[in-house]
Structure formats: C-alpha cells, structure tokens
Amino acid sequence: AVNFQADLADLTCEIEIKQKLIDELENSQRRLQTLKHQYEEKLILLQNKIRDTQLERDRVLQNLSTMECYTEEKANKIKADYEKRLKEMNRDLQKLQAAQKEHARLLKNQSRYERELRKLQAEVAEMKKAKVALMKQMREEQQRRRLAETKRNREIAQLKKEQRRQEFQIRALESQKRQQEIVLRRKTQEVSALRRLAKPMSDRVAGRLGQKPAMLDSGAEVSASTTSSEPESGARSVSSIVRQWNRKINNFLGDPSSSINGARPARKKFPKKGTSQTFSKAARLKWQSLERRIFDIVMQRMTIVNLEADMERLIKKREELSLLQEALLGKRAKLQAESPKEQKGLQELNEEIEVLGANIDYINDSISDCQATIMQIEETKEELDSTDTSVVISSCSLAEARLLLDNFLKASIDKGLQVAQKEAQIRLLEGRLRQTDVASSSQNHALLDALREKAESHPELQALIHNVQQENGYTSTDEEVSEFSLASDGSISQSFTMKGSASQDDFKFKGEPKLSGQMKAVSAECLGPTLDVSTKNITKSLASLMEIKEDRIGFSIRDPYYKEKVSRTISLPTRGSTFPRQSRGSDTSPLTRRKSYDRGQPARPADIGFTPPSSPPTRPRNDRNVFSRLTSTQSQGSALDKSDDSDSSVSEVLRGIINPVGGTKNARTAPLQCVSVAEGHTKPVLCLDATDELLFTGSKDRSCKMWNLVTGQEIASLKGHPNNVVSIKYCSHTGLVFTVSTSYIKVWDIRDSARCIRTLTSSGQVISGDACAGTTTRTVTSVQGEHQINQIALNPTGTTLYAAAGNSVRIWELSRLQPVGKLSGHIGPVMCLTVNQTASNHDLVVTGSKDHYVKVFEITEGMVGNIGPTHNFEPPHYDGIECLAIQGDVLFSGSRDNGIKKWDLEQQELIQQIPNAHKDWVCALAFIPSRPMVLSACRGGVIKVWNVDTFTPVGEIKGHDSPINAICTNSKHIFTAS
C-alpha cells in the first residue's frame, strides 16, 4: 500500500508539471497567432494610407495648376510637404515589414513547439491511464484487505463468543455440581440426625431419666418441626434443628405440669421414621393449602377494591367529559345560528367534539372491562367459597392443629408488625408533607420576589410575572398553603410541589409518554435496593422541583369562559385522561388480569382515594396510540399550533405547560418517582437538551419546543422542519439552538424572537436564513448528494459542532459557521456520538455506528480535512450502536443487541459488559451528576440505574409504555423523552 501511494503521488506530480507545460505552449501559440493578425492588419492599413496620400498629393497639385494664383513656389512647398509625409509612412512600412519577417521566423519555430506539445499531450494521456489503473489496483487491494479483515474479525468474534459460551457452561456446570454436593451433604446430615433422634431408649436409660410426661405423636412433632422450618427459612442448618429439638425435650422433661391430668405418663417409644415423614408431609400440605387459599381471598378483595376505585374515577371522568361535550354542542349550535358561513370555527368544534366522543367511548370500554372483570371475579369467588376451610381444619389431628396454630400465630405477628410500621411511616410522611407545604409556599413567594427584582430590567419577564400573578392569584401565605395541600384526582389543577430538600444531591426525573408527546417527571426516591447496606446512603428522599403553582382553571367545566378558551387543548390526552390502571400487557381476557399483584410482594392496603400512577396504561397495540391518531388528523392551522398569536390570553392557554404528577403506588421501592409532565407536543418526543433554567424538546410533530423550568411554561415553539426533529442542542456560550431534521441543521437565535439565522446541510453548505421556510408538508426524501443527519454534539467549550451524517461526522466551526473537516472510518451509518475534552484541551469524539464498532477521534488544534480514528474498541457489539455516555476516562455504549459495555478510554480496553442488560434495544444512556451512577433506557420503556464503579444494577422502573428515545440531565433533574 505504501508503494502504491508513492507511485500515485509521483504520477500526479508529473501529470501536473506536464499539464502546466502544455498550457504554456498553447498560450504561446495563441499569442503568436494574435501578433500575426495584428501585423498584417497594420501593414495593410499603412499601405492604404500611403496610396491615399499619393492620390491626395496629385489631386492637390492638379487643382493648384488650374487656379489663377498658381505659382511654382507654392506648388513646390505643397509637394515637399507631401513627400515628407510619404517618407515617414514608408519608414513605418519598413519597420512593419521587418517585424513581419521576425514574426514569420518565429512562426517557423512554432512547428517545433507543436511537436513538443503533441508529445507532452500523449505523455499526459499515458500518465492518466497509468493513474487510473493504479487507483483501480489500489481499490481492489483495499477491498481485498477489508474483506480479509472483516472475515478475520468475524472469525475472532465467533471464536470469542464460543469461548465465552463454553466458559459460561463450565461455570454453570461447576455451580450445579457444587449445589448438588451441598444438597446431598445436607440431606445426608439431616437423615443421620433424624435417625439418631428417632432411636428408642433402653429401659435402664429411661429409668435414670425419672418421670417424664407423655409425648403424644412425638415422632410426628419431630418431623413437623423439621419440615415446617423449611418453608420459613431455606438457609436453616440441621444443627439448629437438632438444638431446637433438644430444647423441646428438655422442656418436656423439666415441666411436670405438662403431663395429662397430672398423672405419671406411660413411657412411649418414638414412632418409626416412615410414620413421622408421612405426618410431616400431610401437615405441611394442609398449611400450604390454607395459605394459598387465604392469599387468593386477600388478592381477590384487593382487586375488587381497586376495580371499584377505577370505576368511580372513570364514571367521574365520563361525567366531566359529557358536560364538556354538551357545552361544545351548545357552542356549535350558537355559532351556526349567528354565523352559518364560519366553516373554520365549525370544523374545529366538530373535531373537538369528535375527539371528546372518542375519549368517552374509550372510557365506556374501560368501564365495560371493569364490569367484566368484576363478574369473573364474582364467579371465581363462588368457587373459592364452595370449598369450606373448616373441612380442612376439622380433619386435622392434635399435632397438625398445633403446627397450623403456630404458623397462624407467626403470620399474625408478622402482619401486625408490618401494619404498625406502615402506620408509623404514613404519620411521618404526613408530617413531612405538611412541613413541605409551608416551606414550599414561602419559597414560592421568595422566588417570585427574586423574579420581580430581576424583571425590573426585563420588560418581557415583568409582563410574564404579571400574567402569572393574575392567573394564580397570590394573595396570602395561608391561601397558598391551602392550594398546595389540595389533592388532584384526575384534574389538571394541582400544586407543582412535592417533598422538598435543600440538598444539592437531590434529583427529579422527567420523561415524555408517547400518547400526547408529554414530558413526564419522576423523583429519584430510592436509587438502590433496600437490602444492600452499601447503598443505604443514597436511599434518602430527594428534593422536587419547587415551581410557581399553575392553577389551570381553564380545564374546569365550571366556568364557560375558560371552557371555551381551552376547548382545543382538552382534546389532547392529559394526565387526567390517560386512565392509568394496572398494566394489562397483551392479555385479552379480564380473568387473566385479575391477579394483578405480585405474590412475592406484601399486599398494599386498599385505598380508594389513592392517586393513580403517572405512567400511561399498557394497552393493546391497536389501542395504544388512539389519541395520537385522533389528534394527528387536525390541520396545521388549528388552534394547537397558534402559540404565537397576538392574543396573549388565548396563547397562554394553548401553549404547553409542565404539570405536576401525584405519588405512585410503589414510591418507596421504585428507584425513580414521577413528579411532573410537560404537555404540548402532539406526537412522540425524539430528543432532549436541558440547562438549569431551560428545557428543549424535539418531536415527531416537526417542531421543537422551549420550556422554562422556573415557571413551568412553554416559552416558544420552533417550527418549519421538513420532517421529524431527531436531535437538538443548545449552546449556552452563544445562545444558539441547533435542531436537526432530515439533512438540515437549523441554527436558531433564541435571543432575537427565536428566528432561524442559518441552515447547514450534511454536504457542508451554508444557507442564510431558513432554507425550509416554504415547506408545508412532510418531506420524506433527501436532496441529491445529501445524507440523513442522525445526531449532533457540541464540544464543552461551545466552539465546534459535530454532525453525524452517513458514514462520517462533519466538523463545523461555530465562529464562522463553516465546515473545517470530516471524521471518517466507519463502514456503516454513524448513529450516535459524544464529545469530551482531554487533559491537553483537545476534543475527544467517540462515535457509534451500525457497523457494530465504537471509534475514538482526537481532534487537535488546527486539524482540518479528512481525519481518521485514533482507536477502534474491540470486541465490537453484536448489533448497531444506539447510544453513548462518557465521563472522565469511562465510556458506556448501548446497542441493539440489548447489551451495555463499559470501556476504559485511557487503557483503551473493555472493562466490563452485561450482554442482556435490557430486554430490548438500549436506546439512551446518561450519567447522574454528582453521583457514581449511570441511567440506561430501552425500547421497552424500562429505566435502569447502575453503579458506575462496580457496574451493578441499583434498581429499575417502568418509566414509559412506549420506547424511551433520549435521556439528559442538568444539575438537579433527569429528563427522558418518549
């Protein structure tokens, strides 16, 4: 390859030199031809001038001779004058003739130049042919090497996979063997101990023991005590069983009151081993049967209570939507009577009424499902009641009754302890909640005062604060406390505060469900398993986002004026209209969904007034996106898109808003807890970026929204994209926002009315203004020569933008908005990238591609042109790379093969990998600031928390019922998009 490169460079150099000689000769030939034409023209012109002068002289002399005043002196003077002029002309003619002769001589030499020119042209043509052949040979050689390398890498990966599989099988077999040996040893010891215990005593030994009480069914009790201990504690050793039995014998021997009727009992030998085992098995089976039946009855009652709560909530919601539908029907009738030609308003009202009808139909279907489930539960209840538990109890012997009573006593004590603990926790949480309400109200006032001081120099902020005060009506602290203490059951109006703390380690989690493109927020209530002592320090409660309360009275049906203002937004599924229930999965029969509680978890007491969970329900595939389908048919000119209207009161209602979410069912056990939802997009959210004050979201609805995290409101909507907004980045240094759609990167200046100032293309072109301003419909195909841009990233200093398009990454210098280079090396499309900074202040770009490889590029100052990778991480993933996360020298990569790998950037090697970290594609990764933890999200909607150092799972939560497309964090919050 080195020789080919050298030969190609020499050929290129010689071709350039000879091409320059050819150009010089051609220019010289053209110059000589031009001179020849000039000389010939001047010569002909001078000859004609001489001839005209001679004719003029003869004519003047002839005219002079005919005149009366003719004198010889005057004729000679005129003749001398003409002769002088003719001499000068002849002199010029001779000069031109001499120059013409010199030019003719030069033209004779031109034939030699022409021969040289033809020779040079032939040599250049030969060199070009040789260059083409050499480049073809180089491409063939590169192709052969690439194929050989790919084949070798595939063989190596296959061998490594086979080796790992064999090692795993070996470890599994070794572990199975050890377990079998342990079980065999334990059984042997248990049999030996039982044989020693069941051995009858001789009369002499019994005589030395003196009086002892009668022990009814002693062998059965031995067996019952030993076997009943197995379900209670699987790790109980045989020695503890023997000690327990010895204590029981000593109690019998030292307590004469235990004898029957106070008489001396007759000595009785222990029964044989077979009898004790039969009794033990029968007693254990009876207890297990009773336990299962009791658990089934409890679960049945729990399910019925929850279904009744669901029914009440659905009926209440149906009544609200019915009233709202009646109001809209009345409004439509009034509008038809007043202005029958107003088709636009009627069409909008018809769409709203249609969407409300779809919502009501959905609620009716849910109510029918609840009724069918209740009927099937009642049928099952009759089956359970038909088997009377008293039959089982009456058939028990005395020893079996003792065993059942002992188990019932232990179970009662455990349940009573759990109830007492839960009541104490509830009292503690209620006290903390009251304290938090008071603290939140005071902090809201302090925040509003600080905003008023800052708004003195910002008229727009001052107007926003005035509108917020008018909407929310802050009058007194007592009024705020009462507002914050109100619970929101299915309503949009609720407080935007939860459990608060001043710690800097506190986080919130925000995400967006797919149904209406919402932003859902959860609080990291517990970032570790409760049984792990090493993670107890991170299970403390985390602070929530303390915001100004957004009292959305427009969604209430009590005020017709507000009802008209928000009639468009009520058609979208809000948190109150998503009807959250227990996850249904793909089951179609209500009976299969009856037992919705995990048997391994303690049953939660029935609470009819509990707040529904924040995540939307799991519906069958054909019903999951019902609201998205209904609302997607609305035109682009509808009121949902009119967030920039001049009517500030209406636009404030129609803009997106961040709404708080009530507590979840398993808040104490879940690692993350939903606290708020941002609603405004009409289709799934695909990308995110956030600072401490601002949040940016890009959606499939071809728009990007900017949110204020302080006020919880949408600030602006950046529209006009040709297709889905797949990536978004905000540069805090310049105040610019970069959005990606198809092959375009739009540059928005949010400081100046959020306008698009430049449009960058994947091929490196820069277009002033918005190149997609005239696009009104969705564009599917790209322009010729352009590629789909999958992701963009900014370096930490905000001076360089990296855009992944096709198999390469283009580098943009933001100071000039010009492309300066390209990162190449992948053989598949680059799907993700991330940027970090080295100790020498160089950009370290890490890319992941569909070719299964992760590559590292180090960009030094002044590097331009085509740049290759500095390192390829081995071994690759088994499928395309979907996401990357970098922090210091640690890199995590997530792939479509459901696995996550941890890499060391300094040693450039694989540290650890988890092949099946998720059950679906790993779509997003992000580090939690100020904590040694990393978040991962998959296409199944599951979010997992991992310890960065040990790469062990800390916990997981079902964050969404649709794929999680992106995760980002700021100093206090975690955001996800779905």
UniProtKB/TrEMBL annotation:
One annotated Gene Ontology cellular component of this protein: microtubule
CDD domains for the chain: Rcc_KIF21B, WD40
Keywords associated with the record: Coiled coil, Cytoplasm, Microtubule, Motor protein, Repeat, WD repeat
Biased composition annotated in UniProt, kind: Polar residues: 223-238, 573-591
Residue ranges the record marks as coiled coil: 8-190, 304-366
UniProt-annotated stretches for the region Disordered: 209-238, 256-275, 573-625
InterPro entries noted in UniProt: KIF21A/B_hel_2 (IPR056532), Kinesin-like_fam (IPR027640), WD40/YVTN_repeat-like_dom_sf (IPR015943), WD40_repeat_CS (IPR019775), WD40_repeat_dom_sf (IPR036322), WD40_rpt (IPR001680)
One Gene Ontology molecular-function label: microtubule motor activity
Ranges: WD repeats: 678-717, 874-913, 915-956
SMART domains in the record: WD40
One GO biological process term: mitotic spindle organization
Transmembrane annotation, as ranges: none
UniProt-listed Pfam families: KIF21A (PF23203), KIF21A_4th (PF25764), WD40 (PF00400)
Domain KIF21A/B second helical: 277-436
Protein's UniProt name: KI21B protein
